[in-house]
Amino acid sequence: MNLDAVLDRLIDAALAEDMGDGDRTTMWTVPPERQARALVMAKGAAVLAGVEAARRTFQRLDARVRFEGGRRDGDRVAPGDAILGVVGSAHAILTGERTALNFLAHLSGIALLTWRFVDAVAGTGARVTDTRKTTPGWRLLEKAAVRAGGGENHRSGLYDMVLVKENHIAAAGGIAVAMERVRAANRERLAVEVEVRTLAELGEAMRFEPDRILLDHWDLDGLREAVKRIRALRGRRPELEASGNVTLDAVRSIAETGVDLISVGALTHSAPAADFSLLVNG
Asked: For 186-224, how does the pLDDT look when each residue is reduced to its tens digit (9 = 90+)?
């Protein structure tokens, strides 16, 4: 999937939802030829993401709109910081305001929450990654926001990585059966991850040399023991991924067990929106 195409489609859908057959307030109060200058400001601390989405929103309404300011995705901003200057058609600025700010607020909220998790595990060697718990249709944008916050992306979808979870194992008839079938079918040489629930299953999974092993809802002692067993292996070692209702309060302790990755669904499904405003100068 192409991020530009996804972004344009989402912007068009969002504008159509908001405008319907016309922005009555703007059409009735502002002459169509009126030009204006506006400034997007941060009302709270944030890590920026969605700056390009905000820009494109205004330009979908009038391609002649131009921008001032060099803020980019990944920049940290404080309350009162200027994010983006918008110059051009007053109609385009006023009609596009809420849609542009919605993109910026949602995606910057994801970036900020990601940064907080990444900062919480700094120095441990663990990396923070997202999941597929994304808003339908928004996945590429939300995963880009995770990257802007310093996190990593897990698989993009069901097509670019094999993740054999407990339900696949149950339906297939066991870890060995499922992994043998993956081994036979994986002509694309996709990365393979398998979920295990116990140390015994960990030993069984290790026989198939997966690229990654998922430890979902394991306690800290269990994670430490799994790390110990993986580190005792000679040669190629799989990465260990911890997951399961990971909170900011708990993530440091999880990282200190020695796992390689910590996947956090909350990055995309529960991030509070960042707060921005747009003010027209005339």
From this structure: 999 999 999 999 999 999 999 999 999 999 999 999 999
Residues acting as catalytic residues: 98, 133, 165, 195, 216
Residue 163, both tokens: 């993740």
- CATH 3.20.10.10 fits domain 3-118+271-280: no
CA distance 261 to 73: 23
Q: Which ranges in the chain are annotated with CATH 3.20.20.70?
A: 120-269
Q: Which helix (H) or strand (E) holds 63?
A: none
Percentage of the chain lying above the pLDDT 70 cut: 99
Order of strands across the sheet with 82-89? 66-68, 82-89, 35-42, 276-280
Longest dimension (CA), the chain: 74
Alpha helices per DSSP H over the chain: 3-19, 24-29, 51-61, 90-120, 139-148, 166-172, 175-185, 199-206, 220-231, 248-255, 266-269
Q: Is the pLDDT of residue 44 over 70?
A: yes
CATH of domain 120-269: 3.20.20.70
- Give the length of the chain: 282
Where exactly does CATH 3.90.1170.20 map onto the chain?
A: 3-118+271-280
User: What secondary structure does DSSP assign to 118-167, as a single string?
Assistant: HHHTTTS--EEE--S---TT-HHHHHHHHHHTT-B---SSTTSSEEE-HH
Specify whether the CB–CB gap between 229 and 210 falls below 8 A.
no
Please state the pTM of the whole predicted model: 0.96
